[in-house]
Amino acid sequence: MTGRRRTLAFWRSPLFHTVGFGNLFGAVVTFSYLAFFDRPEHADRLGTVTHVLFFVAAYPVLAVTGFLLSQRWMVPHPDEQPDLSDPVLRRRVLAMPFMLAGVTALGWALAGLIWGLALPLATGTFDPARATRLLFGITIVGGSITTAFTFFTVEAVWRRLLPRYFPHGDLRAVAGVPRLGVRPRLVLVFLFVGLLPMSLMARRALRVAETVAGASPVEVVALLGNMIVVIGFLVAIGVLTAVGLAFVVSRSVSEPLHHVEAAMARVGAGDLTARAVVVGNDEIGAVAEGFNRMVAGLRERERIRETFGRYVSPEVRDEILAGRVSLAGDVREVTILFSDLRDFTPWVESHPPAEVVRDINEYFTLMEGAIRAHRGLVLQFIGDEIEAVFGAPIAEPHHADQALAAALEMRRRLAEWNDGRRAAGRVAIRHGIGIHTGEVLAAAIGSPERQSYALVGDSVNLASRIQDLTKDVGAEVLVSGATVRRLREPGALEPLPAVRVKGRAADVEVYRAA
Q1: pLDDT value at position 438?
Q2: What DSSP string describes 399-441?
Q3: Which pLDDT belongs to residue 496?
Q4: What is the DSSP letter of 302?
């Protein structure tokens, strides 16, 4: 129906077929039992053609009445994209099985009044005992079983649409909607398929026993034969009801669990986009919602993990997230590397800001790649400066060798990058690298809202001072004597005269990388 508002066509939907079939079946069974199997022993007109015709005419009236009542509660089909933020609509959607079950119960209560009171009064056959029996049989027995059947079957059909009304699966957040848990479901099935048929058979046997006392042999045989027929009828209907309700109720439990199991299998295979379908607000629905929240947490953790991995090496990231690295602070020996661009201020002043940002980001990307390749951790970018550490937060026995190897690769990468820049007519960029090894306090530093992994200690200051010395001695890479003494393979390092640095009384032994 293009261009027109389409509501849930109840009379064309599976809900109508489900409710209509369930009520028709229950009405035929109840009427047949009361009219032909459980008649009074006295003359009774209930089984006459007139009463059968009355049933045929009255049932459609009750069905149409129930349909009209149900239409007042029908909700837009999900294809219409209704406003699911409306709390009233959300309650109506979730309460649909309860609503149709309530209409069914009301219809059976009216049926009890019609056949138990209105019809006998209209035909002049009213009998209080008979009226009570009809009211009980129609309203309590037939009505309760049919209402239960209606609820469970409607719920099974409606669950196919619920995920489209609640794409986020937040069913339990809807207030004002009754919940039918797993235990009450099982108890109801036991009552309907066990106690009710047994109570009817016991009642029939008691009536026969009371009648047999004053009956002739021929009447006794007839009564016993009728009792056998009644018991057979009740057993047949009880088996059908038991099988139907057991199948529907067991499916209402097993199917949602199957959805959760399938989603668990997908998550187990590494698919964190998997979601369990939430089709109810009972305990199983709570399990499905909890599972989805857990998977959402895993996705968030993975997002944090991937984001964190942009700032530290994957090895460091995994160690920190696994809780094997103490962020409270510990003293350890590490090797610190500082890198700083030369003539950065004049370069910034003579180039457009967009070009400066692009170039410095390219530079940082190349340098960080070299540091990560040798298991280093970039602690921070400070303007045009890089601070990195080797040996923290994960202990590395050869952190000095790794720092020197990273510095040499940084020099090589910069040379290759500058070759490309010169070929493109752009100016070359120079930098200086200082390396020192010593003890530091490695800890999470900052406020409760924002923290960073940082190094504190004189060794950090000395590494920065050695980087500054590269300008004075004309070296691209300078290494402290403390670092050289920890190298397994010193390589081509040229010793320079000891120098005095700011903030230290003793001279500092330095080496230039060839």
Answers
A1: 96
A2: HHHHHHHHHHHHHHHHHHHHHHHHHTT-----EEEEEEEEEEE
A3: 92
A4: H
Answer with the one of 175, 200, 234 that is the final residue of a domain: 175
Contact 206, 38 (CB under 8 A): no
Answer whether residue 199 is part of any domain.
no
Beta bridge partners of 512: 478, 494
In order, the DSSP letters of 66-125 are: HHHHHHTT--B-GGG---TT-HHHHHHHHTHHHHHHHHHHHHHHHHHHIIIIIHHHHHT-
pTM as predicted: 0.57
Q: Is 148 a member of any domain?
A: yes
Number of domains comprising the chain: 2
**First and final CA of the chain: distance in angstroms?**
81
**Does some domain include residue 164?**
yes
Residue 311's closest CA among 364, 271, 267? 364
Q: State phi, psi for 461 to the nearest 5 degrees.
A: -65, -40
Burial of 84-111, coded b for 16+ CB within 10 Å and e otherwise, reads beeeeebebbbbbbbbbbbbbbbbbebb
Confidence (pLDDT) at 43 = 42
256: three-class secondary structure by DSSP:
helix
Q: Determine how many CB atoms are found less than 10 A away from the CB of residue 462.
A: 22
Residue 312 lies in a domain: no
Residue 191 contacts residue 109 (beta carbons within 8 Å): no
Domain CATH for 499: 3.30.70.1230
Of 507, 460, 511, the closest CA to residue 332 belongs to 460
User: Would you state the pLDDT for residue 4?
Assistant: 40
Distance CA 190, CA 174 (A): 29
Q: End of a domain among 121, 141, 175?
A: 175
Which string of DSSP letters, residue by residue, matches 216-255?
Answer: -HHHHHHHHHHHHHHHHHHHHHHHHHHHHHHHHHHHHHHH
Q: Are strands 477-480 and 510-513 parallel, antiparallel or unpaired?
A: antiparallel
**For the chain, which ranges sit under pLDDT 50?**
1-11, 41-47
Q: Which residues, 6+ apart, have CB-to-CB distance to 60 below 8 Å?
A: none
Q: Which amino acid is at 483?
A: T
Query: 270: which 2 tokens?
Result: 């590494």
Determine the Cα–Cα distance for residues 196 and 142; give it in Å rounded to an integer: 10
Q: Find the domain containing 397 and state its range.
A: 324-513
CB 107 within 8 A of CB 142: no
pLDDT of residue 487: 94
What's the Cα-to-Cα distance from 355 to each of 114, 182, 367, 421, rounded to whole Å? Answer: 89, 66, 18, 13
Q: For residue 29, how many other CB atoms are within 10 A of its CB?
A: 19
Phi, then psi, of 394 in degrees rounded to 5: -95, 130
